[in-house]
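Objective 1.3, modelling of assemblies. Example input:
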Amino acid sequence: MGYFSAKVLANDRIHDGVYSMKIAAGTAGVRPGQFYMLMPRAALLGRPLSVCELGDGWIEFCYAVVGKGTREFSQLRENDDIAANGPVGNGFDVDFINTRKRVAVVSGSVGIAPFVELVKRLTCEVSCFCGFHGGSYLTERLRNVSIATESGAEGHKGLVTEIFDPRGFELVLACGSEAFSKAVTLKCKDAGTSLLISLDRHMACGVGACLCCTCATAEGNKRCCVDGPVFWGEDLTC
Amino acid sequence: MLKVSLCGVELKNPVIMASGTFGFGREYAGFYDLSRLGGICTKGLTLEPREGNSGRRSHETAMGMLNSVGLQNPGVAAFIKAELPFMLGLGTAVIANVGGSEPEDYIKSVELLNGTGVSVIELNISCPNVKRGGMAYGIKAATAYAFVREIKRVCKKPLMVKLSPNAENIIEMAAACEDAGADALSLINTLKGMAVDVNTRRPVFDNVFAGLSGPAVKPVALRMVYEVCKSVKAPVVGIGGIACAADVLEFIMAGAAAVQVGTANFVNPMCGAEIVDELPALMERLGIKTIDEVRGAAL
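Predicted structure (tokens):
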């Protein structure tokens, strides 16, 4: 909890440019949908990574290598140390979600990560719609999954938003890129289906001080890091 | 050992948290006891609330970062009501950073803050991120002189003017602000910079330009502090890329009365406490008994 140094327990490539890293850390009270700022040594700012799965004394993160910081993470080995700050953010309210009858999970690329721990805890009826550029990953750890790939390598050839219809669901849970988030938010608004969406923003401090990760809501700017990253779709104006 | 005096205000140490990097203290209060700090500068305050800039607001650079926040803040009145009581209870000096656009807005902000418990008012004439956000006053020495004089007339607190490295001539700028009545100077604010997104072929920021900070700017900041300390009598607070106790001493030896730590708070939320812890140990190792003893040693 807070700012700490952790041991890397494992760091494995699970797909082209996608890695799963486990660090040793306490998990009491940590919610799915919360994240940690993990600190690269060769770059200045922390990188926000969502909790993928929580275990007894370990936290797993799944991340795509997109730049300098995540490239450094991908080179970490067992027993290396990594500085972290977290858990940060509101996360998903599992008890609330379990009061809904039919829930859809919609993810874009590595936006699938937070749903591994979440789906594990859901007792309601869940359907998952997962989109990828090339092949899929982590889907075997969800349930009732439909896959879309832009390359056509698996499942529907095209975008995940083409195979997902919010009508018929009481609540949609989503996480993906900014473009994905816009498309899903719009789709749920049109269908009148409630949406809880975990947003992806460039962050600097990860403690709520710098105001770099703000997103526009009906109540004015909110900080994605500590007021989110999970927001009600209907509140978002961005 | 660490005590310093800044225009009549006693600070328990020279380590002040820089405006815009520490919110109103709340976000860091869970990490360590903030009473250990020399002081905290508030997020930049304007008379009216501001939502700040649209689009991307931060971009990491080599050992630094660009920001384009654009003075998002709740406004001076809301600050005084909702945030200041909490800050005054932290047991550290509170420095109110005031920005704006029109001189009348600055004057009204300062008048509101005159009646509060803040120790110092830091006048932001150097924000590069809002078109009419103060930097207009921070480029030409003559403009700054007239502006600071006007503020000084109404300001009942010690007035510290925060200078921009984008000033035409930092030495003339510092002298002009001192002549206009500034009780202290703080420098540097961020350097005006930009970044281009090679995917979109467009500037990263909606505002095009943004403010560069972090370790990358430290040598430039140190040089400017050194030059200003050589030429003015007013106390100077050094700012720019400070991230450890040795950085603090460098600025003190270049003549600074105290320092502000900014971007380092984003890198390590504990850095304020760590620097305050490291400082006495480093001083002991270097045979330094008090901060005052080495101030300006490099001049």
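The first strand of chain B starts at residue 4 and ends at 6.
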